[in-house]
Amino acid sequence: MSGRVGYLAAAAVAVVAALILVPLFRSPAARPPGPSGMSGEAAPVFAMRDDAGARVSLSQYRGRVVVMNLWASWCPPCRAEMPDLQRLWQRYRDRGVTVVGVNEGESPQRAREFAASLGIRFPIWIDERQQYGRVYAALGMPTTVVIGRDGVVVRGYDGALTFDQMRAAVGDLVATR
Amino acid sequence: MKLRELAALAVVATVLLEIAVPGRDVYHAGWLNVLLVALAVLAIAPAGKAVRAAAGAPARWSVAAAAFGVAIVAIAGVANGLLAPDDSRVIGAPGERVRNADLGGILVFPLLSPSPENAQAATVTLERDGGAFEIGPRTRVAGSFALHTEERTVVLIEARDPGGAHLTVTQPTGSAFLSPVLLMQHHQTIAGMDVPFDSFAVPAAHRLVKAVLLTPQQASAMRGMEGLAIPAVLFAVDDERDQPLPHGIALDPGGAAIAVGGLRLRALVLDYPAVAVEPVPQLEVAVLGALLVAAGAIGSAVARARRG
Fold first, then answer.
1. How close A65 gets to chain B, by Cα (Å)?
2. B135-146: per-residue pLDDT in tens?
3. Domain ranges in chain B?
4. B15 near B27, Cβ under 8 Å?
């Protein structure tokens, strides 16, 4: 009897020791830095205003694919990709895709003038406190995040995109409608 | 009380103390962990003989349970003392989501509230395994870690052009690039004073700015600040080639907008939580072990009483 108890106790101790030690050697989760690291997570929603002063929120676009582009007027690559974002919006807005340009840290007037100078028609939001830039871990500007119809971040991009890259970014999401 | 029982009690008490009062360097000291092992050996080694000598199955199982309990409590304690990571403090910008491999999840830092009441109530959320765990000033144990928030001073920056238009603030060398909140993690010595500082850029105005945080005592030593009992921020504005600008240094005495280096800057000094991460022996394992030791001791006492 005592021998069996000893073996059982030793086996139990070994199992518990393994349970204690394994978590201590857990390897870090391999998630990339920057906006792509948000993929699979619910897109944060902040109440803010657009360039005309109206209250806006990401939740109003639930059920649509949202291409959220973080930009500023002083950023040359942002300026360069704006016309392609406008093309994307024109081509896909009737197929359930919304493009939103979120100005990071500038005044509504500056954002409005910049958008007007480039003939931008898609919604421009003003994020004076740079909240979206922080939660999407923007590494620079521009930063683009694609949000699915269910409000979950599908993919994120650091740096300017070409029109073909933009189309590829939303293509599968439009097809799954 | 027998030496074996005293040793068992000491092992359990030490490990439970490590959970109740986390974050002490002594828990990672070699001598303490050697002592813990020695006590565990003292408690467990005579158990085989005691099991054989025990009269009846309940008495034997009681001794074995107590020895098993001591073993797992000791393993939990020694694993924490020798293998767990060092104590750390996780600092994040408001709204930032910081992955932490030790915790196996994401720490979500709250948005900054400029009102002091809300800032004190702010909690950091640990998201992992599909759930959320709120971390506040009171220590909470999550698995192998004791977590609590500690308030630290940060500076919220607002930059405008001379016409008053809001400008983007970036931190090319900070943890969050697009954040107007300076985490003030660097230190330097100025005029014999150790002061925290941080830096940011205002790309639209081609400016690089260094911000030095002064305590009320340090600020009151500055010319023109005598008698003011508030923290202040000293700005030094350079052009984008790091060249100092004329009229590029100014002191912001607590939240007022000041003109400096072609900018209008405003600094709000605020408290904001950081997360203290202190490894502890695994709570569930330690409690299970302690319960086994207690059950074994009670079982042995009852068996003795019946026999006597």
1. 23
2. 999 999 988 899
3. 3-84+282-307, 89-143+145-277
4. no
